[in-house]
Amino acid sequence: MANKINVIYKLTLCYFVIAIFEIIAEYFVNKSIICILKPLLPVFLIIIYYIDSERKNVMFIIVLLLSSLTNILFIPNTPTYLFYGIIVFTIHRIICIYLILSLQKFIDYIPIIIATSPFLLIFFYLFTETSEIPENSFYVIIIQNILISVLTGIALASYVMNDSKQNSILLISALLFVMLQFVVFVEKYFLTNEYQEFFRPTAMTLNALAFFSLYKYVVTSEKSNYNNRLS
Question: Taking all residues of the chain, what is their mean pLDDT, rounded to a whole number?
Answer without folding.
Answer: 89
